[in-house]
Backbone:
């Protein structure tokens, strides 16, 4: 049975790394749009605190789920838990991410740190996507947003005129470039289905991730992600989106 989004049923989303920052704001905006949101967090207490805060804003349809994307057992346990609560998921937002700290040069970076970052930013996305794909397939209009970075664009990283040309990072940017290619493969595999699968950059955003050096707000970042969670059947799939870089169509070069 397919669960139609056009029906009165409340749409359901899972967000990884949703206890704070961009993930939490994405949850807030989806709740405001009437979604039921599972807030994935590797520390359950942090997600519960976030949920209490959302409740003070009148947003009651959120639930904390313990989910460490770097740990297959944790992902499996979250899949079992959510599977006991719902037969269908309408959206998966693979938001959890780490950057590996600074500096991160191609010559000097510790390969163990590279492994740690890939384990969250790439393998974590693959773990969660594979675990939850069956619940998403039950939705009539399933959406997957992989939260990426414009800094993973080969074209932009090679363009001296790009405003972040000096922002290199030999651990983080390869992890997100790999995530982009995973997104392309996933979208291709799902091309004959109602899925929309996109890699979306939230923009350079003030969060703990960059010690609040980012110039954008979490509200802007959340809205950029939500736009691709709620896109209609005519919307794009398999695209690399950065509205910060291209405010017109959002699409940017790989
Ligand atoms: P953040 O403030 O550092 O928050 C990251 C979130 O991911 C936290 O909830 C963190 O949980 C969670 N997380 C980390 N490792 C995890 C794991 N193994 N399992 C589950 N959750 C985990 O970062 P942010 O700025 O909100 O970034 C969110 C996403 O946007 C990331 O994918 C990032 O790469 C991307 N992005 C950010 C920017 C920016 O300028 N901020 C720009 C482009 C892309 P804890 O609280 O437990 O650490």
Residues:
């Amino acid at each position: 049975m397919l669960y139609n989004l056009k029906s009165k049923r409340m749409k359901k989303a899972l967000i990884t790394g949703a206890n704070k920052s961009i993930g939490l704001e994405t949850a807030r905006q989806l709740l405001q749009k009437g979604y039921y949101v599972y807030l994935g967090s590797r520390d359950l207490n942090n997600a519960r605190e976030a949920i209490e805060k959302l409740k003070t804003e009148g947003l009651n349809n959120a639930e904390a789920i313990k989910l460490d994307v770097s740990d297959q057992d944790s992902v499996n346990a979250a899949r079992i838990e959510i599977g006991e609560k719902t037969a269908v998921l309408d959206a998966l937002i693979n938001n959890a991410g780490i950057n590996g700290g600074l500096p991160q040069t191609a010559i000097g970076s510790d390969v163990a740190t590279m492994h740690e970052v890939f384990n969250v930013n790439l393998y974590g996305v693959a773990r969660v996507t594979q675990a939850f794909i069956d619940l998403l397939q039950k939705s009539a209009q399933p959406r997957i947003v992989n939260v990426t970075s414009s800094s993973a664009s080969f074209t932009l990283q090679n363009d001296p005129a790009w405003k972040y040309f000096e922002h290199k990072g030999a651990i983080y940017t390869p992890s997100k470039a790999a995530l982009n290619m995973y997104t392309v493969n996933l979208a291709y595999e799902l091309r004959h289905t109602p899925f929309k699968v996109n890699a979306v950059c939230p923009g350079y955003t003030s969060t703990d991730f960059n010690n609040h050096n980012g110039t954008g707000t979490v509200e802007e970042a959340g809205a950029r992600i939500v736009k691709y969670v709620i896109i209609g059947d005519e919307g794009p799939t398999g695209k690399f989106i950065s509205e910060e870089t291209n405010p017109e169509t959002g699409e940017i070069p790989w």
The pocket of NAP is lined by residues 16-17, 19-23, 42-43, 46, 67-70, 95-98, 120, 124, 147, 149, 201-202, 204-205, 207-210, 214 (CB under 6 Å). Residues 60 and 80 are 23 Å apart (CA to CA). The two ends are 36 Å apart (CA to CA). The mean pLDDT is 97.
